[in-house]
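Summary for the steering committee. One of the milestones for this cycle was to obtain a three-dimensional model of the protein with asparagine bound, which we needed before selecting residues for the alanine scan. The sequence and ligand used are listed below.
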Amino acid sequence: MKKLLVLHTGGTISMSENKDGYVTTNNENPVSNAATVQQLAEITEIHPFQVPSPHMTLHHMNDLRKTIILHINEDNYDGVVITHGTDTLEETAYFLDLTLNVSIPVILTGAMRSSNEIGADGLYNYIAAVRTACDVNAKGKGVLVVFNDEIHSAKNVTKTHTSNTSTFQSPNYGPLGIITKNNIYFHHLPVRHQPLVKVDESIKVGLIKAHADLDAELLRFFSEAHYNGVIIEALGQGNLPPSALSGLNELLAQHIPVVLVSRCFNGIVSNNYQYEGGGYELHQKGVIFSNGLNGQKARLKLIVALSNGLHSEKLTTYFSR
Ligand SMILES: NC(=O)C[C@H](N)C(=O)O
C-alpha cells in the first residue's frame, strides 16, 4: 500500500449546510478518516489550520510548504494530498509548484458542495486525489489539482465558475489527464522548471485589472504604499489606456517591477501594437511580459522571484517560461 501525507486546510470540503441553508465551518472535517480512503492508501492526516480559502494568506501557503517539507523529510511518503477551499486553491497550488522541490505527487482538491448537501462532491474528489497520488504516472509532474474527474497542472488551472462542480479548467491547454472509475489516464506532460525555494513573506506585490479610462492614480498608489512589484491585467494582447501611463511611468522610474498579463481568459501577452499604451511601447519602457499566467498566479510568481533576488534580465527570463 502507498503511504500518503494528507493535509486538511478547510474550505467547503470541510463544511456543512446548517438548518437555515447556509454553509458553515465544522469543528471536524467530514472527509477526515473516511473509511473508503483508508482502504486506498496508508494515510497520515494532519490539520495545519482550518480556514475558508478567502482567508488564506501568503503566510498560510508558506506554512503549508514548510509543513510538507518537514514531514516528507522525516518519513518516506509516496505522495501528498491537500484538501483546500476552492476560491484560492489555484493560488496555493501554484505557490507550491513554484517553491517545492519534490518529485512525489502533490495534489490539491476541494469541493463545490459542502458535506451534507445533495450531490456533495468533497469525498468523491478526495478519493480521486488519493487515487491519483498513488498512481505511478503522477510523479514528477509538479503540483496537480484533481477535481471533477480531471487532473490539471497548478500552472494552468483556474476556477472558472462560481458554483458548478466542473469549475476547475485549464484555458488554452486543457487537463493533463482524466480519471475514470477504474483508471487514471495522463495525456500530456507539463513543462517543468527548477523551483525557487526562498520565500520572503514581507514582499508585497499588487494586482490591478485594466479597463477603459484606468486612472493613473491607482497605479501611483502602489509606489506610495511601498509595494515591491505590481501585476497589471492588461487589455487584450497587452495594452493599456493612455490615462494610466503617467502612473506606470512613476512605478518604472522607481524601479518597481511591473509584470503584464492579460485580462483575457485565453492567450498570451505580446508587444504587437505600436500606439500610445500599446504593447510595443510598454515593452520598450521595461514592463515585463508574462508567458500566459493569470493575474493572481503572476502575483505569486513575482513574490517568489523577488524573494530569490531575481531582477532585470533574470526576472524577464523567469516570466518568459
Ligand atoms: N468551494 C469552496 O471551497 C469555496 C469556499 N468559499 C472556500 O474557498 O473556502
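Key point for the committee: The chain has nine helices and 16 strands.
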